[in-house]
Amino acid sequence: MKKIISLLLSLVMILSAFPALAEGADIRMELPTEIHRFFSSATFNGYTIYPDSFAVFEDTPGGDIAFAVTSKGSTQILYGFEKKNGVWVYWLKNGGVLPQVPGQYQLSNAKGGFDLHTDRIYEKDTLCIALLEEELDYYRYVSLFSVNDKGQWHLTSLSTYLLREKGQTSARVYSDHLAYYNEADLLGHAWGVVETNLRYVSFSAFPGTLEEARQVLSTPPDIPYGSQLSATQIQFTGGQKFEVYSGPGTEYERAANGKAMVSTNDWIQVFGREGDYILIQYDITSDQMRFGYILASALPKNASVSSLQLDLTEAVILQNTYLTDDPLKSQTRIRTLNAGESGVKWLATMGAWAYVEVSESGKPVRGFVPIGAISQRPEYRSYAASYTGVNYTAQATLELTDNVNLAATILVQGGVDPKILSYQIYANNLPVSAALLNQDLSTKDGYTCIFTLDASLPFQTTLLGLCPVYPDGPHPQETIIISLY
């Protein structure tokens, strides 16, 4: 037993004589103390920081900033650090910005360098990321990020042989379009927006060719003035995808044959929150967009989104029409709606469209209907108006249901019979046919006669006129005018 214990003690002494294996990245260049310590954790075991894979930018609008790339085979990740109170602290991680291929990345400041595309000098601090591969005498990837006055770094140029492997593609990035080049020759422009913030840029999501850019790029649409739905453009964390439903829950219909998804690498407008979901609009292609709901948990931290204010009142379909989830672009029809269809709820208005929920058949679905084809219900309103002339007084009472069905009663009284034959109804100054009943009430309560009219008004009628018709024709100067709103 003593021999066993002695052998164990000897083994412990032998093992303790060897130094512990170092943890963290294989750092092959000098780094500031805090950054070196950051990469020395076990999290970075197997990674390498090559010479020239680190760069420092001093006195930028955002302060002192440093960047580093860690490499592990084809896994490449960009890290960012900022100096606070004299100490370097971590603030950025984005692997999506880099092509995930083996090689060594070189980081440098391109400030003062010459832009071959625009014949201009880079006047601001500009992070240049270049990929150098073994046995190649050229860079297969170069991206440039310039810092703005708010201290944010944005993509301004990308040149690569990796996009679709169709030879070199260069793109100059602007706020509202991309300009594509082959070497120094301009190939053309693609209008729309891409993600440029260094925190969110995704190399795989960048359009590889001019033709692809023209197919997929778009710009966020302007929401019609006076709409109940208003949009806020929120910057989501890039490189993510979320399931999209037509309503705030998985029980609602999902477009694209149940496969609708939104990518956070493009613009997303947010309209508000309903329960655990938010209503968004996003682009599918340059010619098609979509409204839908995603989980509110997709929002970036500290994003503030107000609650949706929806009417949720019963509505009636007035005429055969359709439902769309893209009212501002393609107006693609996703369902046919028939006149008189029930199970419809009016949610909000947006320009010439009513936002509705339909649940008559199948899963409930939300979308937009031309506002002239639908009316809120139940809707009942009454009005009263009169006209006093030289020889008579006419008193009118009106009942309006569903915003379109009008029943009017006009009582005429006076010392002299005005000889009125009928009344013509005008909606927004246009004549409307009506069923009229003229009854003789000359012996009742002093009224000369009573006219009863029933008519169907055009939707969104705001001004109503009741014009008396005499044997010699209409007398428009005696029209009873009623404002319906």
Keywords, separated by commas or semicolons:
485 residues, mainly beta, seven-stranded antiparallel beta sheet, five-stranded antiparallel beta sheet, 38 strands, 7% helix, elongated
How would you write the strand order of the largest sheet? 7-10-11-12-13-14-15
Portion in strands: over 45%
Report the structural category.
mainly beta
Question: Portion of residues in helices?
Answer: under 10%
Largest sheet entry? 7 strands, antiparallel
Estimated radius of gyration: 36 Å
| Distinct helical segment count | 4
> Mean of the pLDDT scores?
86
Extended strand count: 38
Runs in which pLDDT lies below 50 for 5 or more consecutive residues are 11-20
Give the overall shape: elongated
How far is the first residue's CA from the last residue's CA?
103 Å
Description:
It is a single chain. With 485 residues, the chain is mostly beta strands. Helix content is 7%, strand content 46%. The protein contains four helices and 38 strands. The strands form ten sheets. The protein has a seven-stranded antiparallel β-sheet, with helices on one face. A five-stranded antiparallel β-sheet has the order 27-26-25-22-28, with no helix packed on it. It is elongated and about 110 Å long. About 2% of the residues have low confidence.
